[in-house]
Design a protein that fits this description.
The complex is a heterodimer of chains A (278) and B (351).
Chain A lengths: L3 H25 L4 H5 L11 H10 L11 H32 L5 H11 L8 H10 L6 H5 L6 H13 L2 H10 L3 H29 L3 H6 L8 H8 L9 H31 L4
Helix pairs in contact in A: 1-13, 3-13, 4-8, 4-10, 5-8, 8-10, 10-13, 12-13
Chain B lengths: L3 E10 L2 E11 L4 E6 L5 H9 L6 E6 L2 E2 L5 H4 L1 E4 L11 H11 L4 H15 L14 H14 L4 E5 L7 H18 L2 E6 L2 H7 L2 E6 L2 E6 L1 H6 L4 H6 L6 E8 L2 E4 L4 E2 L12 E6 L5 E16 L3 E7 L5 E7 L7 E5 L6 E4 L9
Parallel strand pairs in B: 3-8, 3-9, 6-7, 7-8
Antiparallel strand pairs in B: 1-2, 1-4, 4-5, 9-10, 11-12, 11-14, 12-13, 14-19, 15-16, 15-18, 16-17
The structure holds adenosine-5'-triphosphate and magnesium ion.
Adenosine-5'-triphosphate binds next to helix 1 of chain B.
Chain lengths: 278, 351
């Protein structure tokens, strides 16, 4: 701790390196397309900020590759990420509760099956999942987009570990008090899990927000397109000139919701942490 | 308020038999203390009464109704746990009200009952606090309050005082006793502390390896222990045991001394017996046994003397006043304080 100036120097350098691309994006989103297209890299904000963002938001960028309105894509992404995070948390809370608090035949089998699916990321099971969605006629629908991403072995395991640390006496006290399993879940387990839920929500929201391959595959309908997919589609592959200013404005907007979630939940999360009960 | 009847309760965990058939009849309003060494099955028995564990065989009746297969909620019992098990995210009020809320009692009535119980326990000022903002003794009171508001048929306590410091334990012990008297609720109280057991219980159940070795009032257990285990477990320092043989209606100690008993037991000559005498009943005097002193513990009004008999048997005596002698100490064994046990089975012989 004594070499503070050096530490600050290194940290500042690190921050600059990491932050520079984001700064470039921000600056780029305030110039016109041709400035960036020429290969000039301006370091100071240009005059077109408001206009570019308005165009990106409304999808009125002009040019050859017509983007979807960013507002629509953001809404799509938001719905997807929220549903995935909420769904994953709800399902894993319930399944962890079942695995920890109930003795039923095949309980350990169920647990190991969940555990094994940990080793299968989305990409590995994407083709069979796609087939299932086709059979269910769920392609090009929100349900088809969201439901397959909702089961979560990781969250189930995390909640299981947490539930195992809840003293057994709480269950017994609740039983003697006359609470049934669901009542116990709602009145005791859930309130005690709040901090864990907040932390997982942040992680899962970002996981959902950043989904790329699955939305690309399952959604052809452009009005259901998510922002991450839409953003890549805005970048043309051919010789057409890309509207880099609009793309960058969209990229900036795509970054905002995850940042907002982290910032908002962090406050909540710390409040939860400092109020943690033993 | 209700009676409790246990009939031949047996419990097995896998292949280990923990309870070997326990019978117990508890009258209305009685305070029964279950006492015994660690691992003898006290908690298991209590949890079977609560319905948190189910007996392998046997029957539990509460208030004359067979509840053997019922869940805890349907038994109308309240339990105080060793670590109190207060819900950490609820205030004291919510903790106490929870059982009533589940039973769909009107909010006004709940408030009234909680206020009453809180007043009884002197915790009115704590109702808005969370459990972690309470001291151990206060938590203990809240846990009691949670049981009291329910006005259950039975109170079940599983070593509720063992997390408190010695002074507080004595104070809470008296308070529990007073409260139980006042409310008149039939109670089972588990402890491994014999002083707690003696002072709290109307009757004690001394458990030994899954059996109820003796069920009786504290004085009865102290003055007429059913076997050598009970005799050594209750009373401090523990009872002295001397091996001997029957000889013409009297006991010939292996040491050589022959002792006559107040009542002549109907045992054949040559029957091996164990003679028991409490340390406080040994009195100095010639013509008895001789102890070689090893250690003196002066306690002010009395002195505890530890030593060995000539054959190496350990002996403890509680003698009045100060003892200054060194070396051999001669002790008498008053016949009215002698306990006779069968050497083979450990069971008490005669009255
Ligand atoms: N769920 C269980 N599974 C297997 N064995 C158990 C279980 N619960 C208790 N036992 C065993 O049963 C025996 C009695 O346990 P119990 O908890 O009733 O003892 P206790 O008399 O309350 O002891 P302590 O004074 O230490 O609390 C112990 O040997 C214990 O290992
Ligand atoms: Mg116990």
């Amino acid at each position: 701790m004594r070499r503070t100036p050096m530490a600050y120097l290194w940290l500042t350098l690190g921050v600059l390196v990491f932050a520079f691309p984001i700064y470039m994006t921000l600056i780029g989103s305030t110039h016109d397309a041709s400035t960036i297209g020429r290969g000039d890299v301006p370091l100071l904000p240009g005059p077109l900020g408001g206009e570019n963002y308005a165009n990106a938001w409304n999808g009125t960028g002009g040019g050859r590759i017509q983007g979807q309105p960013a507002g629509l894509m953001l809404a799509n992404s938001l719905i997807m990420a929220l549903c995935i995070a909420a769904g994953k948390i709800a399902i894993s809370l319930l399944s962890a509760f079942a695995v920890v608090y109930f003795r039923f035949p095949g309980r350990m089998l169920a647990f190991w099956l969940i555990f094994i699916t940990l080793m299968l990321p989305v990409e590995v099971r994407i083709i069979p999942t796609f087939q299932v969605m086709v059979d269910l006629s769920l392609t090009n629908s929100r349900a088809g987009l969201i439901v397959p991403l909702m089961a979560s072995a990781t969250a189930t395991l995390l909640f299981r570990q947490f539930f195992l640390t809840i003293p057994r006496e709480y269950v017994e006290a609740a039983k003697v008090d006359g609470a049934g399993p669901l009542r116990f879940f709602r009145d005791v387990v859930l309130p005690l899990s709040v901090t864990n839920i907040a932390a997982l929500f942040v992680i899962l929201f970002i996981y959902g927000w950043n989904q790329y391959l699955w939305p690309l595959l399952i959604i052809n309908e452009r009005s259901l397109e998510t922002i991450v997919v839409g953003l890549t589609k805005m970048i043309g592959t051919g010789d057409s000139q890309n509207e880099w200013n609009i793309i960058m404005a969209t990229a900036v907007m795509a970054m905002l919701p995850p940042v907002a979630v982290v910032v908002l939940m962090q406050r909540w999360f710390i409040k939860g942490l400092t109020e943690t009960e033993k | 308020m209700a009676t409790l009847k246990l009939t031949d309760i047996k419990k097995q965990f896998g292949t280990t038999q923990v309870l070997h058939g326990v019978d117990l009849n508890v009258a209305e309003g009685e305070m029964i203390v279950i006492v015994g060494a660690s691992g003898c099955g006290k908690s298991t028995l209590l949890r079977i009464v609560a319905g948190l564990e189910f007996a392998t065989s046997g029957q539990v009746d509460i208030g004359g109704q067979d509840v053997t297969g019922l869940d805890p909620a349907e038994r109308d019992v309240a339990m105080v746990f060793q670590n109190y098990a207060l819900y950490p995210h609820m205030s004291v009020f919510q903790n106490m009200a929870y059982g009533l809320k589940i039973r769909r009692m009107a909010p006004e009535d709940i408030r009234k009952r909680v206020a009453q119980a809180a007043a009884l326990l002197g915790i009115e000022a704590l109702l808005e606090r969370r459990p972690r903002e309470l001291s151990g003794g206060q938590r203990q009171r809240v846990a009691m309050g949670r049981a009291i508001v329910r006005e259950p048929k039975l109170f079940l306590f599983d070593e509720p005082l063992s997390n408190l410091d010695a002074k507080l334990r004595v104070q809470m012990r008296a308070e529990i006793k007073r409260l139980q008297r006042r409310l008149g609720v039939t109670s089972l109280f588990v402890t491994h502390d014999q002083v707690e057991a003696m002072t709290l219980g109307d009757r004690l159940v001394v458990m030994h390896q899954g059996h109820a070795a003796q069920v009786a009032t504290p004085m009865e257990i102290w003055s007429r222990p059913a076997d050598t285990y009970v005799a050594s477990f209750i009373g401090s320092p523990a009872m002295n045991f001397l091996p001997g043989t029957m000889e013409g209606g009297a006991v010939r100690l292996d040491l050589g001394l022959k002792l006559h008993l107040p009542a002549t037991p109907a045992l054949a000559d040559g029957h091996k017996v164990t003679l028991g005498i409490r340390p406080e009943h040994l009195c100095p005097g010639a013509g008895g046994i001789t102890m070689n002193l090893e250690l003196l513990e002066p306690l002010g009004s009395e002195t505890v003397a530890h030593g060995r008999l000539p054959d190496g048997t350990e002996l403890t005596a509680r003698l009045p006043g100060e003892v200054t002698t060194e070396g051999p100490l001669s002790l008498l064994l008053p016949s009215e304080h002698l306990h006779l046990f069968d050497a083979a089975t450990g069971k008490r012989i005669g009255a």
